[in-house]
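Minutes, project check-in

Agenda point 3 was the complex the collaborators sent over. CS summarized: two entities, 1086 residues total, and the question is how they sit relative to each other. Sequences were read into the notes so everyone works from the same version.
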Amino acid sequence: MEFLVSWLADYVDLGPDIELEVDSGGRHFMRTVRTEGRAEISKLRDELTSLGLSVEAVPISMFGTEQELKLDVEVTSNRPDCMNHFGLAREIAVKRKQALRKAVFPFTESLPRGGPKISVKLEDPEGCPRFTARVIRGVRIGSSPEWLVRRLEAIGSRSINNVVDATNLCLWETGQPMHAYDLETIPEGEIRVRRARAGEKLTTLDGKERELDTEVLVIADRGRAIGLAGIMGGLDTELTARTSAVLLESAHFDRRRIRIGAKRLGLHTDASHRFERGADYGVCEEASRRCAALIAEIAGGTIEAGAVDAQGPRPEPVGWRLSGPELERFGGVAVPDSEIERILSGLGFAPRRVGERLWEGEVPSWREIDFEPRRAPVDDGETRARREAWRQDLFEEVLRHVGFEGIPSTLPAIGGVDPGVNAEHDRRDRLRDRLVGFGYAEAIHYAFGKRSWDRELPRLVGTGDPIALANPLSELFAVMRRSLVPGLVTAGEFNSHRGARGVKLFESGHLFPGGDAAEVEALALVCGGTLGGEWDHHLEAELLALKGEVEAVFADLGVVAEVAPAAFPGIIPGSGAVWTLSGVTIGYLGQVGATDSAFPLFAAEILLDRLPSGRERIRIEPPSRFPGIEVDLTLKHPLAVSWGELEMAIRAEPVPDLASLALKARYQGAGVPAGAVATTVTFQYVSAERSLTQDEVNARHAPVVAALEARFGIAREEKR
Amino acid sequence: MGGPGSTGSTGATGATGRAGANTAPVPTLEELALLASEAEAAIASSATRASWEALRVSWAGAKSGRLKELQALIPKAADKRAFGQAFNLLKARVEDALAARDTELSRVEAAARVEAERVDVTLPGRRPLVGSLHPVTLVSREIEAVFRSLGYSIAEGPELEDDRYNFALLNFPEDHPARDAQDTLFVEDGRLLRTHTSPVQIRTMLARQPPIRVICPGRVYRNDNDLRHSPMFHQVEGLCVAEGITLGDLKGTLEAFIARLFTRQTKARFRPSYFPFTEPSAEVDITCQICLGNGCPTCSHTGWMEILGSGMVDPRVLDNCGIDPDRYSGFAFGLGLDRVAMNKYGIPNIRSLFESDERLLRQVRG
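CS then shared the predicted structure for the full assembly.
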């Protein structure tokens, strides 16, 4: 929001280095930006920034050949009181320990010269708790004086005519949005503030016809709506060249009501911007007088006595109480009493000393929006409960002006450490490191994706529809993901298209099953091709290598998962497998079918939430002091017999001194009939007590061999 | 048959003056022991594979080795038993010596081969494939480490939230422009994707009483998508609530954090600002990490870059969470991880963090 430096000088002294001219009305203007003033402007900029009114830029506005310097200030949404020159000047005055100058203007009213007596009816006192209406008769609509045009144009507002310009100037001066109606267009001068009727139509000043509903607050005459309250006036009651009597509105509207209306109608105006953030209930009448005086000054006419100030019930003002020692404890800084009093007085809080370093007062009307009182009113024993501000709201005001830079830095004095541990977080970190060790690069993808992902690739969570975004950025981000794999496959293809010879990517993140189901933490891996240079001799990605990596992850978590063949959408038949733990699905694996990657892609996903989060308790088995004996067994068996089946069969019968068994090789080719495979398994026999002899091992091993041959071997079939 | 070894110092064996296996006299036990010592010495000093081989043939040759000959004398010995034992000892000593020398010669030969073949040590090594953590993860870990050392623990929560946790309890009034700053992505059932990790702070405060020290890293979402904004990004927020927490504590903690995450020389500046859930609120600027405060286009020539939002927890928020604001106070802060990662690693475009070009990702070594 832009402010004129010269305009601020109407209310505070900015120092002699900024050279300004003053006109007969006490208004300041700049002609040229002088280098001498640069340091002063820089100081002003720093002062405002230190108060929470960040100056983002200092642009220059041209008026003919003359220059006006502006401050582009970021006024946060809790400070509507600073969205005008007077309000901003108040902060500068307090910071500079100056008195704030109020605008002085002549104000005289004349008795009504007949005509209808205006009236205002508040039919929605919650939406509009105050409405002042004042009549100025005998105005001549025309152009504005040069100084006024200059001020408005400098802050980016277009000059329209003298009366409208007067209301705009007052907005930027006092913060109060006002509106001028042609009085003759309002039958009997009768104003009603009410909700619009469903389907009611109004053509606004911008010439657009708008259809309203009951959430929108309107200014109406007896029958029709004549303006959108707090947002924009209506075309029918607009001032024209023939207008001679003006009805000036200066009202207060509920910020929520204006926000709802502005959002519904898609309108954002200077007026709605302020009302949405909370205007000053107390300034309505004063701003109306100020504006009426200005209209009379520049457009002629007389201000008619008998202005209406319609008010609905008004809540009690918000009281406050501040203890010096509490303030100092909270801020961690000493603040002298005189400073506390000076700052609060300057900001309009009118502190009254009520005890030893204790003050009380009321929150000024222009700051009420930022001082929402405590929920439970403080009952001080009298009949009326008092609305009281949070003390921290007051601390903020004082500390802001004391300055954060002067507050000594300390560390919290809390004994001990926080008791929390986060096993899930630590597990994720551990697994990340594990996968990085396996050569994977960590990826992070958006948590939303295409609807088709659910059909194109496997998912292990969610039964019904996916969770859809109500306002998606695009169809690519339509639904919340139920698998991490589609994002990784997309990334794999992206890398392939950019010439990569291989990918190894993983991601950890939440899945969104849909319905009321909680989010599920998952970990997924996608690999394909070969990474690294040829010289490095890396193996090409393949299904079983990926499986081994996932098994290593399981082992790290102390999980022995069962695996079984499984069919999944998007996975090449025969390559899919599902992992289960006590019958619960914990993951899957497979080769991706439809992909335009130049190398095959393999994918795996595991559901971390279904796995233990702690590390497995590790028990060390001391190795035997005696050497073991290894014996290989090669069994030719039909392909239909899976390794899992074979392994289960071996493990089913306890074999004495069998320390381990491991798959050594699988062979198909010469010597092995079609449809069969030769599986070689290494058995290791070790005794904890002594060295085994070959004969002893043979005695243990022979029955295993015989049993396996008899059950699975093709020799068995050949014999038949 | 037989005869002295063709090479080496076999004087002792020669001294026995054997003429042939059949006619040779039976050596004494002392002579056998002497023979063993002489054989060991000869074998141990065989300098080449050829001399070792000659000794092996002469001693352990299957047909006509000395051992064979001596074994044949056992039946002729006066005390067959004693002679047999002495012979066995001799045989074991000779065989051990041959084996030991064989191992030694093999090692020497292998070394000689390596030396002769000469690896070009300037050839590149064969590198193992090393993975990489995501830049955002690395930055998050650094921040987590700093706060863990300050006694904080890590709290996490869901990414789909409802209005209550994401806004209402954080003192965002309904229909208030403060919500505009956090352009929200909603899902069809009315819930929303959290716009900050503050809901985790709310959940923590609802679950426990002070003292509380947590940091909340995680993904957050806004309805924003351009070169500088991504609809998903990452935050770490922190919360400290206890009796007697001061604005000075907020400053001190963040200054300590900034010095650890960046450098000791990095200065921090606290600018009052507004967030609905803290008061007073402050944006924290640090010395621009590009120009080190001298002014550059990145920092709009101010020498500062904004990295943190912070403030003293608004008493309404404590009250909303069942924590007595008259007894406890606290501070909260938050920062975007993606921006820090981009600054730290010189990543120009936020979206390149999420498109997983491995040529980019694998440059980040943690």
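Noted in discussion: The domain at 109-311 of chain A is CATH 3.50.40.10 (Phenylalanyl-tRNA Synthetase; Chain B, domain 3).
Follow-up: revisit at the next meeting once the mutant set is ready.
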